[in-house]
Design brief:
Layout: E1 3-4, E2 14-17, E3 32-36, E4 49-51, E5 56-57, H1 60-65, E6 70-73, E7 78-80, E8 90-93, E9 103-107, E10 120-122, E11 126-128, H2 131-136, E12 141-143, E13 151-153
Parallel strand pairs: 11-13
Antiparallel strand pairs: 1-3, 2-3, 4-5, 4-6, 7-9, 8-9, 10-11, 10-12
Amino acid sequence: LRPCQFNEDCNMGTYCFKGGSSADPCSDSTVGVCMTIPEGCPPGVFDEQCMCDGTTVLSPCAAAQQTQNVRVAGVCPRPCSVTEDCSDGFYCHFDVGMCGGAGTCVALGLPCEFGQVGAVCGCDGTTYASRCSAASAGQPLASQVACATTTTTSTTVSTTTTTT
């Protein structure tokens, strides 16, 4: 396999693959190997990957088709300063205690599981029953304890029993 640092170092129909080592696959100084660009990807493979250019593709194969290396597995983080900067179903998340500034769009919380408790204070000044409840409401945390003066919100867990 031919060593490379850039796609231009490779022959037509190949690209510079820099994965498979502990080195940063997005660094110009990382040495990779020329690999064949796949003509097609297996159908039904959904393993989202964040490419070095900051875009998300459905699989490592899709990244290779675009002659890109994968920075990390999963969806690329999207920067935000307010929730309106994010797509539907996402909110602008900040480090605990930071209710503004530079954040990252993250998916609204999934339904909370029974037993997740521990009151937290959302950046909206509301006390939530848990971190999960705040995330479900799209609220970053002002603190990991209940708000001093507040409205309390909880997530209800319901169960259905079917008898046959």
